[in-house]
Amino acid sequence: MTIKKNIFSILLLTFAVFNITAQEAIPEVEALLNKMTLDEKIGQLNLLTPGGGIATGSVVSKNVELKIKEGQVGGLFGVSGPEKVRQAQEIAIKNSRLKIPLLIGSDIIHGYKTTYPIPLGVASSWNMELIESAAKMAAKEATADGINWNFSPMVDISRDARWGRISEGSGEDPYLGSAIATAMVKGYQGNDLSNSQTMMATVKHLALYGAVEAGRDYNSVDMSKVKMYNQYLPPYQAAVDAGVGSAMTSFNDIDGIPATGNKWLITDLLRKQWGFKGFVVSDYTSVNEMTAHGLGDLQAVSAQALNAGLDMDMVGEGFLTTLKKSVKEGKVTEEAITIACRRILTAKHQLGLFDDPYRYSDTSRPEKDILTTENREAARKIATQSFVLLKNENNVLPLKKDAKIALVGPLANDKNNMLGTWAPTGDPQLSIPVLEGLKNVAPKARISYTKGANITNDGEFAKRVNVFGLRVDIDTRTPEAMLSEALQNSENADIIVAVVGEASEFAGEAASRTEISIPPSQKKLIKALVETGKPVVLVLFSGRPLTISDEFTLPVSILQVWNPGVEAGNAIADVIFGDYNPSGKLTASWPRNVGQIPIYHSMKNTGRPAPTNRFEKFKSNYLDSEISPLFPFGYGLSYTTFEYSDLVVEKKKITQDELVNISVTVKNTGDYDGEEVVQLYLKDEVRSITPPVRELKGFKKIFLKKGETKTVSLTLYANDLKFYNSNLQFVSEPGKFVVFVGSDSTAEMSAEFELE
Ligand code: BGC
Q1: Residues of the chain with pLDDT > 90: what percent?
Q2: Which pLDDT tens digit goes with each residue over 354-380?
Q3: Distance between CA atoms of 301 and 295, rounded to whole angstroms?
C-alpha cells in the first residue's frame, strides 16, 4: 500500500513538472515517454499521407515506410483496408525501436462507403437521432476498414454560400450547429473509444474558417471577439463538451495570426477556457503555409505552431525537420515537445492501440459491416429526410405511381454527382441515378429520359471541376439538338421532372463561386420546358444555397435534394411518389442574389431598420433588391399543412436560474401524415450589446397523422438567455424577451416573458 502510494506521489510530481493533471496521466504513456529520445518524440508529431485519399495540397509524403521504421511517424491517412492498415502497423511494431502503433486517419465526412447526403443536407433533417446514427454507421464501416481516427465533424458556421465548403457543415446557426456537433461526436466516438467499432472524432476547422472574406477559400478572417463568441465558436465548444478526441486548426488567420500558430486560440481558448483534453492537429500543410501568410521561414513557423499548442503537423514535416534545431537554439523547449507527444500517445492509448495495434485490422469485418443492405437502407432514409420542398405549384407533388413522366436533365441519369463533394471513400459507380430510382419505386410509371442540356457548356469551368474525375461531361451533340430532343420527348408526358443543378465539385474545398445560380445551359432548358405548358418539377442538386429567384417565379415545383449519396435515386423517388412526405428545413438562408451575402436570420436590427416589403430612403435596405432572403432559415414545405395555435409561456416573470416552459399546439390540417420541425426563436429586447432580431433557441421534430393535433413543449434553459457581453462574460441581462414559435425563422406567433 505504502509503496503504491509512494509511486503515485512520484508520478504526481512528474506530472506536476510536466504541467499535466493526474487525470491525464497514464502510467503506460509516462513509461514510454521516459524511454523516448527527442527524435522519437518529434516523430510522433508527424502525420503523413502516402496518397490514396484526396491530396488537398501540393504535397504527398515520400519515403513513408522508411520514416515509420525510423520512428518518424505518429500517424497516417489515406491508407485503408484491414490488410493495408495491418501492414502499416506491422512496419511500426516490428521495425521501429519503440513499437508505437500508428493513428490511421481519414476524412469520413458523410458516410464511409455507404455515402449519405452531404452534411448541409443531413443538417436539413433537423433530426439529431438520425444524425447520430448516421455518424455511428460511418464509424462502424470505417473501423471495419482499418480507420481509427476521423477528420470530422466540420462545424464551421457559414453565412456565405459562395464558399464551397458550406456544403461540409451545418449551415448558418450556432445553436443548431452545436446540437449537430454533439450528435456527430457521440455517433463517431460512442462511449468507449477503445471499442473497435468507434473512432476518434476531430472537430474542425478551429476556427472561423466559414467566415473567409468574400467566400473565397483559404482567405483571411477578421471578426470581433463578440461576434466570434456569440455566433461562430459555440459549435466547436459543443464538440469539446461532447468529449471530442482531437481538433484540427484552420487555414485562415484570426486577428492576424494563422490559426495553426495562434496561441490564444489553441492554448488560451481551447485548452484553458474550454478544458479540451485531446490533441490538436494542423490542417494539410497549414504549418508550412504560415510562411506564405508572411510569418517567417519553416523553422520559425514550426516553432511558433508548437509554442502555440499545436501537437501534430499534417503532411508538411515542418516539425520533423526543424524542431530539433529549434530546441538546440532555445526557440522551443523539449518539454513542449514532450507535452505534445504525450497527448498523441494518450490518444493512441484511448483507442486501445497499445493493447492491440491490430484492433482495427480484422479482415472478416469489411464484408459484414460495409455497404450492407441495412446501411444502404439507412442512407436512403437519411437522404429522404434531408430533402427540402421549396415550392409545390398547384400541389403537383406527390406524383402518381402510374404517371407518364418525361424525365429530363443532365443530372437525371448520372452516377458521378450523386455522392457529393468530400466523398473520397465512396464509389460513385455504386450510386443509384434518379432514372433507376424512379423505375424501382414506381415500376408502373411510364418514364422516358433525355439529357436535355449539359451541366454547363463552359469547357474551362468543366475542367476545373473535373479534378477528381469526370463530373461534368459535355455532350458531343449541340445544345440545340439536346434541347429539341428533350422537348420532343416531353410531348406525350403528363408531367416533366427536370433534374438540374450543380455537379458535386461545384462545391467543396477550393470550390468557391461568385455566381451561385443554376448554370445558363440548364436555365435555358428549364425555361423551354416550362413553355410547353406542362407541369414541371425541378429536382435541384447543389452543395450550397443557390440563387434561384428566376426559377422560383416560374410555375414550377422545386424539391431541393443537395447531393443525396449512394441511394440518391431511390430516395428521390420515395419523396416524389409520396412514400415519404418531405420534412427537411433549410439550415442556411437562400439569398435572392449574390449581393445580399452574407445573409442569415439572426442579423441585427440596426438603428434604421427597413420597413417590410417597401423601399424607404435612409433606411437599411437596397435600391435594387428586397432585404429578405428568397427562402428563410428553417424554411421547408410538406405535402401536408400545419397550423399553430395556443402559444403559452408558463411564467411571465422568471429569475436568473429558472427555466421557461413553453407549449404550443400544432395540428396537421392537410391530407397527408407528415413531420414538422417546430422552431422556437428568441428576441432579447434590451441588452448591453446590440441583439440579433431573433435567434434559434429550440426545436422539436414531430410526427402528426393527418388531422392529428399535438401539444408540443419546449424549454428555454438559463444558458439560452445568455450571451457574451463586451467583456466576453457569458451573462443574461434583466428585461423583456419575446418568444416566436412556428415553422421557420419568420414565425409570427409570439409571447413574452420577463427576466428579473
Ligand atoms: C482539409 C481538411 C481535411 C484535410 C485532410 C484539408 O485540405 O481542409 O478538412 O481533413 O485536408 O484530408
Answers
A1: 94
A2: 999 999 999 999 999 999 999 999 999
A3: 7
Cell numbers 421547408: residue: 636
Q: What is the per-residue DSSP string for 691-746? A: PBS-EEEEEEEEEE-TT-EEEEEEEE-GGGG-EE-TT--EE--SEEEEEEEESSTT
283 lines ligand 1 (CB under 6 A): yes
- The band of 431, judged by pLDDT with boundaries at 50, 70 and 90, is very high
Chain centre distance of CA 139: 16
The finding on whether 156 has its CB within 6 A of some atom of ligand 1 is no
Q: How many CB atoms lie within 10 A of CB 711?
A: 10
Domain ranges of the chain: 1-35, 47-52+59-106, 383-596, 642-755
Tell me the CA distances in angstroms from 618 to 72, 609, 625, 629, one per residue in order.
Answer: 63, 9, 15, 21
CB 415, CB 429: distance < 8 Å = yes
8 A C-beta contact, residue 103 and residue 74? yes
Given ligand 1 and candidates 151, 166, 218, 425, which is best to mutate, with the most ligand atoms within 8 Å of its CB? 151
Q: What does the alpha-carbon distance between residue 82 and residue 364 come to, in Å, rounded to a whole number? A: 9
pLDDT digits (tens, 9 = 90+) for 265-314: 999 999 999 999 999 999 999 999 999 999 999 999 999 999 999 999 99
- Find how far residue 637's CA is from the centre of its chain: 23
Nearest in space to 386 (alpha carbons), one of 227, 574, 229, 238: 574
Residues contacting residue 469 through CB under 8 Å, at least 6 positions apart: 416, 428
Q: Is there a contact between 274 and 195 (Cβ–Cβ < 8 Å)?
A: no
Closest Cα partner for 450 from 437, 438, 435? Answer: 435
Ligand 1 geometric centre to CA of 220 (Å): 17
Q: How many angstroms separate the alpha carbon of residue 304 from the centre of ligand 1?
A: 21
Question: Which backbone phi and psi does 592 adopt, to 5 degrees?
Answer: -75, -35
Q: How far is the CA of 205 from the centre of ligand 1 (A)?
A: 9
Q: Which residues are catalytic?
A: 283
Question: What are the distances in angstroms from CA 57 to CA 60, 75, 207?
Answer: 8, 18, 19
Distances (CA, A) of 322 to 73, 305, 340, 496, 752: 15, 12, 15, 62, 60
- Name the amino acid, one letter, at 562: W
Pocket test for ligand 1, best of 107, 203, 260 (most atoms within 8 A of CB): 107
- 125 grid coordinates: 433533417
Q: Is the pTM of this model over 0.85?
A: yes
One-letter identity of residue 695: E
Coil, strand, or helix at residue 547?
A: coil
pLDDT, tens digit (0-9, with 9 covering 90-100), for 675-723: 999 999 999 999 999 999 999 999 999 999 999 999 999 999 999 999 9
706: CA distance to ligand 1 center in Å? 46
Q: Is domain 383-596 in CATH 3.40.50.1700, yes or no?
A: yes
What are the φ/ψ torsions at residue 711 (nearest 5 degrees)?
Answer: -100, 125
Give the DSSP H or E segment for 380: helix 373-386
Residues 551-559: what's their mean pLDDT?
A: 98
CATH 3.20.20.70 is the classification of domain 642-755: no
Ligand 1 pocket member 204 (CB < 6 A): yes
Question: Quick check: 532 and 488 in contact, CB under 8 A?
Answer: no
Minimal-distance CA residue to ligand 1 atom 2 = 283
Q: How far is CA 294 from CA 264, 266, 289, 301, 306, in A?
A: 19, 20, 9, 10, 17
Side by side, which strands form the sheet with 246-249?
Answer: 202-206, 246-249, 279-281
Which pLDDT does position 54 carry in this prediction?
Answer: 54
Query: Is 107 touching ligand 1 by the criterion CB < 6 Å?
Result: yes
Do 46 and 103 form a contact (C-beta atoms < 8 A)? Answer: no
Collapsed DSSP state (helix, strand, coil) of residue 438: helix
